[in-house]
Structure formats: C-alpha cells, structure tokens
C-alpha cells in the first residue's frame, strides 16, 4: 500500500477533520494489516502524538487507549487481575511477539476482521467503544453496524468480576484461527463465536436458554447444540461449514465447563 501524504495531528479535532476532508484517507497505527489491500491512499493519519497508548483503571472501569499494543493487552497486570487469562489465551497465538508489539487494539477493533481474536474476547465483556464524533457506543453495536467514518479513542470495560474462558482451534501456531469461542459468566452468561468466518457474534438464543440454569452436563450439552443451530457458519480456506459446526460444539462445551 502506498501513501501520498502523511499527517500527525495534534488534537482529536484535527485528526477527525483530516479524516473527513480526504475521502481516501486512513488512520495508521501499527499498520499490520494494510498490506492486505492494494488500494492507494492519499493521506495516512498517524495518531501517535495524541497519547493513546495506555491501560488505566478506576474503581469501576478500565480504559484502554486505541494505540495500546496487543502485547500490552496480553500481559498487562490490570487486565489479568480483572479478566484472568482471557486475553492471554486470545492473543498469544497471533503471529509472534514482534507483530503483537505493533498491532493495536484500535486497529483490530476498527477493522472488524472476522478472524480477530481480540474482538471475540472483548465481545463477551461489558464494554464500549469511545469514538471522537459518535461518542460512547456499545461494543457489539459498533461491531455489527459496520464501519463509521470516525476514530476510536479508547475501549472502556466495566469491572464486574466475570469468570471467563477463551477457546479456539488453529491448524498451526500463528495461523489465523479456524474458529474462536469466548464465554463470560456474571449474573448471566455470554457466548461469542468468531472466525465463522464472519465477524464474531453472540449466540443470543443460547444465552437466553442458560438464564437461571445450572451449568451441569445436560445443560452444557444442550447449549453447545443450540449454538451450532442458531449461528451460521461458512466455508473458508481453513475449513468447511460442516467442520465448523462440529468444532463449535466442542469449544462451547469446554468454555462453559471452565466458567461453571
């Protein structure tokens, strides 16, 4: 990918103005997936001067700046203390440490890639996307509604002490996942399946089925079957739809057993 011009705005307002004024513009951070496109870009907008590389907390919430690397998310003690090994399991197989040191959470979320492990993990948490123009938006709403001509400032996650599990299948370490599954348990249970190969999606009917139910073997088996029936899966270069339908049941069973 080629950039004709490069800008380092000094404020959010300037960054958004540049993005809006030039139709063929792109926010760049780690820029790890830009090579997937051959489309020329007239303006590369780098937010490096806006101090968006942070993970901090209050009594109720965790704030993750858009320029925070995936490796920082994977290893940060604040994240580990609140969500256990959810992000470590989700991120440690992504290519390599060098890659995860430059890939950012903002780019990963904004790209809405179907293969994104980080989206699958975030989707089971109570979190919001903080955008410059649109303000706070529910994370899953942002993922489902499509791309906005806007800029992510940070991800905000509510502290509600969830039990979490992350399960996935890869053909080899560092390969894109064949299928991903994240589960969280608080007063209710959230189940998200990614790399279907479409964008990660909640199994809403299955979540409803599990309300007020004990996570015993019978209910877990039924929930795994329901996930296969309610979500759609497709063929891709890594596996067939039929294979994914079998694998998802195994991943859901393992995840629910882990949070019971």
Explain what this protein looks like in three dimensions.
There is one protein chain. The protein is an alpha+beta fold and about 260 residues long. The protein folds into three domains: about 5-50, Uridine Diphospho-n-acetylenolpyruvylglucosamine Reductase, domain 2 (2-Layer Sandwich); about 55-160, Uridine Diphospho-n-acetylenolpyruvylglucosamine Reductase, domain 3, CATH 3.30.465; about 165-260, CO dehydrogenase flavoprotein, C-terminal domain (Enolase-like, domain 1, 2-Layer Sandwich), CATH 3.30.390. Helix content is about 35%, strand content about 25%. It is built from eleven helices and twelve strands. The protein has helices at about 10-20, 70-75, 75-85, 85-90, 95-100, 105-110, 115-125, 140-145, 205-210, 215-230, 240-260, and strands spanning about 5, 25-30, 40-45, 55, 60-65, 125-130, 135-140, 150-160, 165-170, 180-185, 190-195, 200. The strands form three sheets. A five-stranded antiparallel beta sheet has the order 4-5-8-6-7. A four-stranded antiparallel beta sheet has the order 9-10-11-12, with helices on both faces. It has a three-stranded parallel beta sheet with strand order 1-3-2, covered by helices on one side. Helix 10 runs antiparallel to helix 11. The N and C termini lie far apart (about 45 Å). The mean pLDDT is about 90.
């Amino acid at each position: 990918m080629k950039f004709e011009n490069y800008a380092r705005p000094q404020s959010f307002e300037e960054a958004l103005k540049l993005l809006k004024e030039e139709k063929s513009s792109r926010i760049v951070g780690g820029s790890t997936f830009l090579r997937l496109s051959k489309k020329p870009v007239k303006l590369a907008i780098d937010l490096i001067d806006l101090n968006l590389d942070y993970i901090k907390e209050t009594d109720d919430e965790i704030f993750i700046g858009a320029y925070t690397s995936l490796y920082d998310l994977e290893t940060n003690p604040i994240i580990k203390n609140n969500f256990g090994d959810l992000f470590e399991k989700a991120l440690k197989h992504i290519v390599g440490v060098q890659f995860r040191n430059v890939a950012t959470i903002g780019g990963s979320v904004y790209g809405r890639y179907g293969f994104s492990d980080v989206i699958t993990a975030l989707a089971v948490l109570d979190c919001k996307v903080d955008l410059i123009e649109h303000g706070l938006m529910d994370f899953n709403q942002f993922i489902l509604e499509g791309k906005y001509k806007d800029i992510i400032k940070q991800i905000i996650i509510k502290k509600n002490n969830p039990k979490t599990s992350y399960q996935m299948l890869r053909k080899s370490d560092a390969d894109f996942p064949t299928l991903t599954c994240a589960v969280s348990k608080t007063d209710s249970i959230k189940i998200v399946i990614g790399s279907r190969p479409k964008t990660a999606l909640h199994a809403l009917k299955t979540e409803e089925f599990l309300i007020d139910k004990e996570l015993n073997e019978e209910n877990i088996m039924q929930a795994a079957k329901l996930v296969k029936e309610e979500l759609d899966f497709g063929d891709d270069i890594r596996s067939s739809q039929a294979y994914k339908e079998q694998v998802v049941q195994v991943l859901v069973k393992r995840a629910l057993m882990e949070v019971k």
